[in-house]
Amino acid sequence: MSEVLPESALDAARYLEKNFNYFIEDLKVLARIPSVSFPGFEESEVQKSAEAVVSLLESRGLENVKILKLPGAHPYVYGERLRAPGKPTLLLYAHHDVQPPGRVELWTTPPFHPTEKMGPGGQRLFGRGTADDKAGIVIHTSAIYSYLKTLGELPINVKVVIEGEEEIGSSHLSEFLATYRDLLSADVLVLTDTGNFDCGIPALTVALRGLVGVEIQVRALTKTVHSGMWGGPVPDPAMALSKILASLVDEDGQIQIPGVLDSVKPISREEKAEHLKIPYSEEDFRSQCGMIPQAKFLKTDPSPLIQTWRLPSLTVNAIQASSRLQAGNIITDLAWAKVTIRIVADMDPEKVLSQLKSYLKAQVPWGLELELKIEACNGPWSTDACGPVFEAAERALQRGYGTAPYKIGTGGSIPFVKPFVEALGDVPALLVGVEDPYTNAHGENESILLKDFRSACLSQVYLFAELAEQGKKIIEEKFI
């Protein structure tokens, strides 16, 4: 821990704690908007969400606030506060679009009516987007506003960009970066869209898996037919799809697509030893993900935690043939599935996509028609978390949470990170967030632990001060 921070940072932190309930209300306002960016959902709600973000940024002291538009893309929002000459500039990222609610009947509270109640770790705020990632927006604005209400100004320069299509793969990112590159230039990227190691234990995420995905459609008929009248000679597309999907992995869940695993480096003895320093058990993993007692782990060498950070995996995210609610005695005309592969360092996403497509085409039985649609093709990312920026972040997180953070990988993917870091000239990227193993992001009953939300907001206050103190080193490091 560094020496005592300036009194201005402590004043801002005290203001934030005293007024924390107001910042919870900021989050609730955003979380009430069903800003699902997926096709088939109401696009006007994403626009409404962007407008709400504009209002929040302006009310919390950001300047030059505006919606950034691209043809065919959901809206981004930008704001800035650049009144600290000679100090570094932070680019603060979050996203305001959210996942679909999923099975509404499984929610214990309405998904777009944010509700406080007890849950794992203590009092939580339940609702779609409360954690992923509307909390990230408020973490930024709460720290900014707390400084403006106490010091009167920020100790550092900030730019804020809030994306509107992260949940659908940031498909317009390249165009966005090409269009707004100069506006977004900064010395440090702070991306608030990841998770903590556990409730009350903060983390810096230093590695992300990439994502390759396709939608698969197998067709046998031009219409659905009666299974009694036609069953036997007519090939069943649901059965064909099942055969294809079952062939993708072996009995241990190992990917069986030729060539896909060739570039995956074995986990070294040193890596294994480093990961095993983190206190964690298979029982923790089983509890946190909600595995049923009799379910067996797939390949756990050296542990399921390391496996999710360091090795690739294949998942069938969704499958559909006819309808569960209207499951008549039929042979359906077609069957559909979404398949994704999480890829790791040294795996080329384009190559993996090509291998996946070639394999699927070769597996189609009975001469059926196959249609493939690319869903995602994003590479992995990692960083060497050394230097003054990362040291400042570790100190800020320790102050905010009262305990030192872990440097962790994550099995998830954030397509924004790698191209954005590269576009900004490989600036240091701090990946922090407020999710925990019980948040259930993307699933039903998503929630945020409110005491960790407070800690994350406080950590942002301290981060501004720490990076302001390290300003000269950060700017010099950028040009080395």
Give short descriptive properties of this protein.
single chain; 480 residues; alpha+beta; Aminopeptidase; Alpha-Beta Plaits; 2 domains; 15 helices; 18 strands
Question: Could you please describe the fold and organization of this structure?
Answer:
There is one protein chain. This protein has 15 helices and 18 strands. With 480 residues, the protein is an alpha+beta fold. The chain folds into two domains: 7-208 and 380-478, Zn peptidases (Aminopeptidase), CATH 3.40.630.10; 210-264 and 312-378, Alpha-Beta Plaits (2-Layer Sandwich), CATH 3.30.70. The strands form five sheets. The chain has a six-stranded mixed sheet. It has a four-stranded antiparallel sheet with strand order 11-13-9-14, with helices on one face. Strand 1 and strand 2 (76-81) form a beta hairpin. The longest helix is centred in the C-terminal third of the chain and has 20 residues, at 450-469. The two termini are 26 Å apart.
